[in-house]
Amino acid sequence: MNITSFVFYCFIVTFTPGPTNIVILSTVNNSGTKKAIEYTYGATIAFGLLLAISAMLNTILVTIIPKILIIMQIFGSFYMLYLAYQIYKMDSSKPSVNQTGTFMSGFLTQFLNPKVVVFTMTVIPTYIMPYYVSIPAVTISVIAITVIGFLAFVTWVLFGTIFKEFLQQHKKIVNVLMALFLVYAAIMIWM
């Protein structure tokens, strides 16, 4: 297993914009850091739960239908490219939607987030299961990915708090960079 590629893939996908990260920035801007952290806890628990469910489902699917991996890789790649395009063309002149920063809204947003569902359904079979299938190894991987996700959320909270004015002045450049990171992540699914 290429640990560097795995960790880099996890960091790119969790740190690039998606519904949860955008809501975190919006919550920081509209409700403050404390509410954004509360939202982050809910999102993190949902992320870990999705990873655990994915690990269980993929264990069953990989043993029953080995070719399911290619379908998940194709779907995941196309969805990430779609998100990159949406971020690239995002109208930065429109204000972001105000979301309430509660634990439950963070949990639900993350649990229903298509970017996360695609990520959790592709990361385990692509990077973990070809090399490790034991329950302890998969569990450690799920915990590690959850920690990476939590670090991404906290980084978005800090980023939004510290660079609030700068981000508002340079939204298009930030969107282009985040879109490019997502394109790279879509390509990394195949490596």
From TrEMBL:
Keywords: Cell membrane, Membrane, Transmembrane, Transmembrane helix. The chain crosses the membrane at residues 6-28, 40-62, 68-85, 116-133, 139-161, 173-190. Pfam families: LysE (PF01810). It is a multi-pass membrane protein. The keyword Lipid biosynthesis does not apply. The keyword Cytoplasm does not apply. It is found in: Cell membrane. It comes from the Bacteria. PANTHER family: ARGININE EXPORTER PROTEIN ARGO (PTHR30086), ARGININE EXPORTER PROTEIN ARGO-RELATED (PTHR30086:SF20). This is LysE family transporter. It comes from Metabacillus rhizolycopersici. The lineage of its organism: Bacteria, Bacillati, Bacillota, Bacilli, Bacillales.
